[in-house]
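Researcher: Quick sanity check before group meeting.
Model: Go ahead. Protein one:
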Amino acid sequence: MSEVKIPVQSLKTIVISSVIASLSAFFILIAFIAPAEYGIDPTGLGKKLGLMVLAEKQAVISKEVVSCPAGNLAADWQDIVMITIPPNSGLEYKFAIQKDEAIEYEWASSGTALYFDFHGEPKGNTNGYFKSYQLSTLNKAEGAQLIPFTGSHGWYWKNKSAEAVQVTLKTKGRYKIKGLM
């Protein structure tokens, strides 16, 4: 029977390997991750490699909703919100609505056509079911929807352009605003 010898690393080899790994990780953090994620570039390498642009775009991709008191803008609407949809991004704006209630709506973008899905999800649903009421690519839409089930109902907008797009959404009905999702 032959013996199998298992190579054992010396303590010196383990310490050297650990130090090299730690220094490498620190360099990667400072040279690549910090410029791309946080816009911090102490080495200047992030700018040369174009990584600083990634941090700038993340700062631009902030979701913004401005609520306007309807009485000041249009007596016909209960709620008016202005929603900024970041470039190459999508977001949802929702309401909690009971079965057999109706929501009237009108929305318009600042000119750019947006892919949208006006849909609802039943309350307590855990299997991912949703019902689309309107699905298209437009720069505005209006109408009324009788709600077929209690749950979360609203719009998903997808901005495929390189510029932020503002959507003005006007609504009225018996609902509770859930806002951005």
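Researcher: Fine. The other one?
Model: Protein two, sequence then structure:
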Amino acid sequence: MFLGDGGEFLIGLEDERWDPVMLIRQSSAQSFLAFSSHQEYQAGIGHRTAAIEDSRLLPMAELTITN
């Protein structure tokens, strides 16, 4: 859904900086867990782990705003 470049925080820790940011929509938490435990994904997880210094995973639920 979104891939962007990070930078300095407007609000946050002064010494924390983010590089790439990716937003992915999953149909449910169960769908994400099924994907992340898939054998082919697990086979390549070492590359992902080696490529990043730190990461965050923040599950969210979409809000519906009505007038």
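Researcher: One line on it for the slide.
Model: The chain has a mean pLDDT of 78.
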